[in-house]
Structure formats: C-alpha cells, structure tokens
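re: ur question from yesterday

yeah so i grabbed the chain u mentioned. its 751 aa long if i counted rite. heres the sequnce exactly as i have it in my notes:
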Amino acid sequence: MAPTSVIAVDLGATSGRVVFSSFAEGRVSLTEVHRFSTAAERTPEGLQLDAAALFGRIQEGIGAAMELAGGDVAALGIDCWAVDYGLIGDDGLIGMPFNYRDVRTATGKAEVDRLVPAAELYAMTGLQDIAINTVNQLADDKLKGRLDGARRFLMLPDLLGYWLTGREFAERTNASSTALLDPLTGDWHWELIDRLGLPRRVFPDVVEPGTVIGPITAGPAEGVPLVAVGSHDTASAVVGAPLTGPDDAYLSSGTWSLLGMELSGPVLTPESAAANLTNEAGVDGTVRYLKNVMGMWILSEAVRSWRAAGIDVSVPDLAVAARTVTDAPRFDATDPSLLPPGDMPARVKALVGGDPRMDDPVFFTRSVLESLADAYAGVVDQLAALTGRAPTRIAIVGGGSHNALLCQLTADRTGLPVSAGPVEATAIGNALIQARAVGLVSGTLEDLRRIVMASSDLTDYRPSPTRPDAELAEITALSNEFGADPTFVRAGGGNSSAKADGVLWIKPSGVALEAIAADDLVPLDMDVLNGSLDAPDPDPSLGDPVNHIATLARLADGPRRPSVEILFHALIPDTYVLHTHPLPINAITCNADGEKITAELFGDEVLWVGYTDPGLPLARLIAQRRGEFEARTGAPAPKATFLMNHGLIVAGDSPDDVRALSRSIVERIDAAVAAERGVAPIVAVAPGLAVFAVGESEKQAATALGVYVDALTVGEAASRLGRVRAMDERERRFIETWEAEAYRQQVAKTG
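ran it thru and got these structure tokens back, copy pasting raw so excuse formatting
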C-alpha cells in the first residue's frame, strides 16, 4: 500500500516541532512527535543560532516520526521563520548564523541605504523597509569580510535541506523575504545585487514551492523525497488558512503578526512604499501583500523578564485575566524599539508615558492586546486603500487564534468578522504542499483549503454590536415595572428582550426582571438563532442545545448566560418581547380546557400553544403555530401568546403596546373568573394549623411558601373555570433535571 503520510518540520522563531501528518477521506490529521527550542543564543559574536545543534534536534524528531509511520512516509518538508541564513564555504558552514534581532542589522541597513535609496529599493523588490531584512544582514557580512570565503548563501530551511540532500537551492517564498528578489520575474534581482556589491556566486537557483528536491541522503528519513514547501512559515500558514474568497484577509499570529491579503501580483506604488507594506511570494504564483506587526513577541519577551524577577506568569493565563481590565492605555505596536530582546516591560511602559499601572502583568497584557488590535485595524484600512479591495473577513491562524480576547478585540477594532483557527495552520500548509507534490492530494489552493476547513475546528467572532441605548432603556424599564408586580412575576421568573439591527438583546438567565439593568442584556445574532430552528439538532455531545446555539450566536463576552428562551424571542419579529407568568393567565394555561377557554375569551387575539418541552421544541412549536395562524387567517400572528402550563408572551413595537396588552389580558381574565363564580377565591388558615416552608435561607423559604400559595391559587382558579391540567411525571422530570433550570436556580441562589 502506498504511503499516505508526510513529515512536516515547522520551525518558529522560539520553538520548533516535527509533525507527522496523515491524509484520508479529504482530511489531514496531525501528530506532533517532537518539540524543541530554536531560540538564538548570545555569543561573543552577537545573537546567533547553533544551526548544527538545531539540525540534530530535527533529525531526532524525524526519527520519531519515521518510527510512528513504520518507515512508510511519502515526503518531508521544512518551513522556517524568514530572513535568516547560513553561509557555506568549501569546508561547510562558516560560523554560526546570526539572528535577525542582532544589532548588526543597523550597520547593514545604513550601508544599503547609502547605496540604494529606500524608495528605489522598494520599487525594485516591493519589500517592507525594516532592519531585519536579509539584504541588511548580507550588507553587514560584506563589510565584515564574511562573504570572502563563502561559496553559497542559503536561507535556513534551504540550509537544512542541503544538509539532508546535498542539493543547494533557494525556495522562492523565503527568498522573497531577502529584499533581493525581483517580484515581477521571481528570480534574483541581479542589478540590485551588483549595486550592493554582493557576489553573484553565492546565490543559488530559485525553485518554486512544491518542487521535489530529491531523496534525503542522511539520517532516519534516508530515501524519502524532500519537497520544497512554502519554506517561509507564513507562506505555509497562508496555505493552511481557511480563506473563503479573494476579499478575505489572513492574520498569522505568533511571534510576529503578519496581516495581509493574497493577491495575483505585487503592489509597488509609492503609496504602498509609504505605508511600508510588503510583497512576499506565496504558493502557486500568488503574492502575500502584508505588514509585519510585532505580535506575541511583546508578551513572550515580557514573560521572560517577569520570570527572571521571580514572577511566575504565562501568556494564556494573563490573556484570560486581562478580560477584566477596561481602561488600559494603547501604544504603537509597530514601534522599532520593541524589536530587540531585553527588558520588554520597561520599553512598553515608556511608550505609554510611564503609566505605573503597567507594572501589573495583567494590566500590561491588556494594553498589549488592545494595541495589537489597533495596529491590525490600521493595516486593514491600508490594505483596502492600496489594493482597492476592502477586506470583508479576517482568518486568524497560529497561536494567537487561541487568544479569545485578542480575536474579539480584532473583530471589534476592524469591524470585521473573524474566524480563528487552525492553530496548526503552518504545519497543515506545509503538509498540504508536500502531499500535492507527491500525489496524495490534488487541486488548487481553493481545494487545499477545503481540506483545511474539513480538518479544523474554527471559532467565529463578530464585532460587538453598537448598543441601541433607546431600545435598551425601554426594555429595561418595562422589565423592572413588570418584574416588581407580583401579578405578573413571582419568584424571579420571566424574561424580556429588544431587537435592533439584527441583534437580539435579552435578559440573562438567573437575573430577576425587577433588577435587570441595560448593561446586563446579552447581545445575540438573530440570524444564527433563527437559522437553528430549521437546522438539525446540535450533537448531544455539545451539551444543552440552546446553550450551544447561544454560544454560537453570542456577540459579546460576559459572565452571564442568556435566557433559555432566546429562540422564541428571536422568531417573534416585534421589537419588544415580554414573557411573564401572571397568576390569572395560569388559570387558563394550566387548565385542561385552556385552549377552548382562550378561544371563547379572546378569539384570534391570542395564540394558543400546547405544551411541549422548553428550548428548541417549544420555539419550533411556536413558529409552527404562528405559521398555521397566518395561513388560516391571512393576518399576522397575534401579539399575545398563551403557553400551556407555562405563561404569557406579549410582543409589540412599542413598550406602551406591550404594557397595555399585558394588563388588558389579565383584567379580562379576572373579570371572567369573577363573572363565573361571583368573587375571587379567598384562602384561610384554620386556627391551630400552619403551613411550613424550608430553604437554605429565609429568602428561599419565603419563595417556596409564596410559590406553594400561588399553586393553590392557580389550582383553585383553574377549577372554577374548568379542570386543572397538571404536568405529567415525564414533563415534570424534564424540567427538574434540565441543565438550564439548574443553572437558573444556582444563579438565583447565589445572586
């Protein structure tokens, strides 16, 4: 049987891993078999990488992957961070490769600027003017004489490939990060190389991503073909990004944040140069038009400083804690002072004017994430202006896609929906390019991304909605009024909502109507809610279906879950919806003859809905009954709905309409009860007897007693009008064991 697996070597700027990747049934699955440090080290020469030791760690990981595969592997590919390289002489590697954060880049950049003005360099290469570019490092090598004995210059992934196969090459996506490649021809820009005084002999032939270089000749993968993937890790990450159309933007979020769009050709205008965006080669002849923002490097370097000072923190924990901070200052996350390693907390603090609150790691983290989101918004605006194509969606991949706060802030600042994931986009893209090169998969980038989406769990974030203050004030006042009226609400029940611009703002579960504030209301996407009515039920493994749907529809973070009745609130089109449990109405809704009595008293003014389980079943039944009414009468469904064994729903486009109709219905039922038996029932306690109620607190005991008395009241009134219809045992058990009801009771108990 032909092998169906490949090995992806994925090297980030601080850590690397070897990933075993298998293909089956239109999906790819990944198994990380080895992880190791790729961090540079300080030497007498500067900040350098021990490439030989790195190669040894990679071979160790390849051995583990080969063992897992039983030696049956179709290909191997390597991706790596950009701009760094090694120099090869007649006796092998010349010294240790320098890291792009070494201070030598400033010397090299000054030499490049002297020989080729920045504007001209951009017109020739289309690359962002930044000190870390390979051209500046090579200029420093020229000045220091390091090129004199060099036979070849090889970008890091190409150097590792050379050690594996003995073949020298320059894969195009990474070569494009040098600022020495012609973006129009895809080959080295020889005129520029000559002007800079760099020796032509050191530049190897450029190959396209997807080229099969040849068999590996050294180590545990001997005989396995090496494929030149998108060896710049961002190029592979973009292949692994779930882009759905030409106007999607991608954000590869890791040590760096690389935000851009996939284009068919470079943008070399003076305006693009002034905005300092970069044109890097992508897979299949595409251009990755993007901007580098500092990224999570700021936080990871700060964590190193804090740990050195004895403060034990981690980026994931800080990101969660930072959700509670609301007033953090912002700074320019592209400031070049943040590039070198060192005391990051002090540098960021200086950028915000020495704010002493920045000494708190949680506060610092919020400031960083806010500032990154600001930078992303600025880049999105630049992309729209310079390409003539306004991004409509952002796909965040890499480690930052797990940072929920950063993803939400990105959606809020850019005003665009965000898709987060996969975290492993780079390894997936690496594996896909290999797999296509050796025939395990086929097709265009679109086809490859279908495999990505079929293989990944993505999380969607929507921009937080603009608060409709007038509508929220109205529904809050209406809720408080009815929540404080024991005729309509007992024991903290009921819920309410308002709609504006496709967003449902609804009361959270466990919060009493009489105490609700506008800030408590939870915003939900109505398209998601209403779409769930006709969709298949969510997988039971996802938990309570309504809670799962609410999670998908939620438009803002917060501590409270929305009311469990979100679905019927969404399907009723009126602006305001109030759901209460008035005692007089329960005399009908808890009555075996309730439907008949409703028709006699209200005709087509009130819609009757029989009993079914709350949640999805109830919402679907309400939608069905509304549709049946409209088909029968040709008129819109009534503004009032009676729910059997449940309560009253009243809707309207003004709070006054809801208020008036709710009270009118209760008054008409009171009148009907009085007319039927003369007077409303009176409850008396015989001398010497008592009714007892117990609870964990006086409040709970009083509530239990009140509900008991209410039940007697409802039963007596229902008996006067007809026959009592009580829930059967199955119906009661559903409510008693319903997770949403348990949550509501717990919130009510704890406040």
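noticed a couple things. The radius of gyration is 33 Å. also DSSP finds 27 helices and 27 strands in the chain.
anyway ttyl
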